[in-house]
């Protein structure tokens, strides 16, 4: 296999390198906006209780997608060039590490917001005591400090980092490796399937094959579905445990407001995790096992999650190609023919 790219001047390379972070930010914001809007529409369709305080999390999603692009560029050199089509594609180890890093970065922003939302639901502030979540958050920050705001963050870190590592790995593998393998298998074996067609192509010197235009969008859509479901397999059960742990936030808030020393607070956090594990054991036992309890309602949640996530990933890929450089044509040599891939 070989890839042919147009020659670029060093000045152009330098400009593209400087513009790449801005392109990544625009790509991330577009994908995050689409995913957030789609999620709100799906939630409305299923009559989920969407509160006025809980805005679409475009900012958090933009951080996720932008961080992923930057991390992938650092781990896989072709991704740093700003091309619309990355060839050779990034190996799963690189996409897993980039997704893990992006999920961890996003968790720093999302975890405090998630914890504030839980407190909003349990403290009765939705009845008009506060004008918005930020007013409530500022009051809570002064009461319990930064340490209290990040109570339970380790569960959020585990859910987001591993969840998005699998999320982006599944997406990139289906979109790139699986797609390239399929077209190489299908068009590379064309000679064995229909020798007469190959002879006709050779007679008219048509030695370049361009795959059907509808083939790649199908793989792109399938990649979005696979990424969403694979992420749910990890994040859904961890979310169940996290929500149960958040039930002890009021107790931890009270302890944090007493301004205990760091060793004392660490002891309280440790006991809180122990209590959460005991509660998980009881609920799992009543439900007939850990798997049955942790994945109860998984199908319904996945059905709600897949449309918005798939739409966000499709926009993510389209915007990444929109802000790409022009030199992104790929030629794959197979059995004496060139398979041409363009945006």
UniProtKB/TrEMBL annotation:
GO terms for cellular component: mitochondrial membrane. Its main location: mitochondrion. Residues 1-29 are annotated as: Disordered. Keywords: Membrane, Mitochondrion, Mitochondrion inner membrane, Repeat, Transmembrane, Transmembrane helix, Transport. Coiled coil: none annotated. Signal peptide: none annotated. Belongs to the mitochondrial carrier (TC 2.A.29) family. This is Mitochondrial carrier protein. It comes from Talaromyces pinophilus (Penicillium pinophilum).
């Amino acid at each position: 296999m070989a890839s042919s790219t147009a020659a670029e001047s060093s000045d152009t390379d330098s400009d593209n390198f400087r513009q790449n972070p801005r392109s990544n930010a625009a790509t991330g914001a577009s994908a995050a906006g689409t995913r957030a809007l789609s999620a709100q529409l799906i939630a409305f369709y299923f009559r989920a209780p969407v509160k006025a305080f809980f805005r679409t999390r475009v900012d958090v999603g933009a951080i996720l997608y932008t961080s992923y692009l930057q991390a992938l560029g650092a781990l896989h050199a072709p991704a740093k060039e700003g091309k619309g089509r990355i060839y050779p594609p990034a190996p799963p180890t690189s996409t897993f590490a980039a997704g893990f890093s992006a999920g961890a970065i996003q968790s720093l922003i999302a975890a405090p917001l998630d914890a504030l939302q839980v407190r909003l639901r349990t403290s009765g502030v939705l009845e008009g005591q506060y004008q918005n979540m930020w007013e409530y958050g500022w009051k809570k920050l002064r009461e319990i400090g930064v340490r209290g705001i990040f109570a339970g963050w380790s569960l959020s870190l585990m859910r987001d980092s591993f969840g998005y590592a699998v999320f982006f790995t599944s997406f990139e593998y289906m979109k790139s490796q699986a797609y390239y393998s399929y077209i190489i298998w299908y068009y590379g074996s064309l000679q064995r399937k229909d020798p007469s067609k190959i002879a006709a192509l050779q007679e008219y010197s048509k030695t370049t094959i361009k795959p059907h235009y509808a083939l790649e969008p199908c793989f792109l859509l399938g990649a979005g579905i696979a990424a969403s479901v694979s992420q749910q397999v990890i994040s859904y059960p961890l979310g169940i445990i996290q929500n149960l742990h958040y039930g002890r936030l009021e107790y931890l808030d009270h302890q944090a407001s007493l301004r205990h020393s760091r060793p004392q607070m660490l002891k309280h956090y440790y006991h809180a995790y122990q209590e959460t594990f005991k509660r998980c054991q009881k609920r799992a036992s009543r439900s007939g096992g850990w798997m049955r309890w942790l994945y109860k309602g998984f199908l319904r949640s996945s059905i709600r999650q897949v449309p918005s996530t798939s739409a966000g990933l499709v926009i993510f890929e389209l915007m990444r190609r929109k802000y790409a450089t022009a030199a992104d044509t790929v030629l794959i040599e197979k059995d004496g023919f060139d398979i041409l891939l363009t945006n």
